[in-house]
Specification:
201 residues, mainly alpha, Rna Polymerase Sigma Factor, Chain: A, Arc Repressor Mutant, subunit A, 9 helices
Length: 201
């Protein structure tokens, strides 16, 4: 899955119902649907590719052990990313870490900021790769909770309610956190973007 891909489709309910029984076909479909997505999320939160791979394997081990208690009526994505988030937090509590980075396109990160082409555009003398680096750095410098909210909202397309479930916060708190994150990102960009208002720039 690439950053340019649309929000992933929900996991089929008929397969979801078979996950608590560890049905091989359902498990294979689940792995195919979620491994790259979980890895991408974890990789963006830690600073090392091998560590991200190890943590992702750990996440899926915990998921498989937890399937016996999974309620198939419950939407799958928040449940999966709650486990992934908790495993990353466990790592942060037990190890010194520096936030990792994952390359993303300028267009995708611009969409993340709510910067439509008709309203905002980069200064003409700013190279595309330079802008991309600024955007990546701005996301990666966000505090833990804000960064998680942004990644879950933009790259997984989760609702604020679902993100609240993942992060253990109310929907209102998540909306406020996300709003603060976007403001922080826009502030971090500084002169990199010009805002064009109707009738002038």
């Amino acid at each position: 899955m690439t950053d340019a891909d649309p929000t992933p489709a929900p996991f089929p309910p008929q397969l979801r119902e078979r996950l608590p029984r560890l049905d091989p076909v359902a498990l294979e479909s689940f792995f195919d649907a979620y491994f790259d997505r979980v890895y991408g999320y974890v990789r963006r939160l830690v600073n090392d590719e091998q560590l991200a791979e190890d943590l992702t394997q750990d996440v899926f081990l915990h998921i498989q052990l937890a399937f016996s208690t999974y309620d198939p009526e419950r939407e799958l994505r928040p449940w999966v990313f709650t486990i992934a988030t908790n495993r990353v937090r466990d790592h942060w509590r037990s190890h010194r870490h520096r936030e990792g980075r994952k390359d993303v396109s300028v267009e995708r990160d611009a969409a993340l900021l709510g910067l439509s082409a008709g309203e905002h555009r980069p200064d003409s003398d700013l190279a595309e790769n330079e802008l991309s680096a600024i955007l990546r750095d701005a996301v990666d410098e966000l505090p833990e909770g804000m960064r998680m909210a942004v990644l879950l909202r933009v790259y997984e397309g989760l609702s604020f309610e679902a993100i609240g479930e993942v992060l253990g916060r109310s929907e209102v708190a998540v909306r406020k956190r996300y709003s603060r994150a976007l403001e922080a990102l826009r502030a971090a960009l500084g002169p990199a973007w010009r805002v064009h208002t109707e009738g002038g720039s």
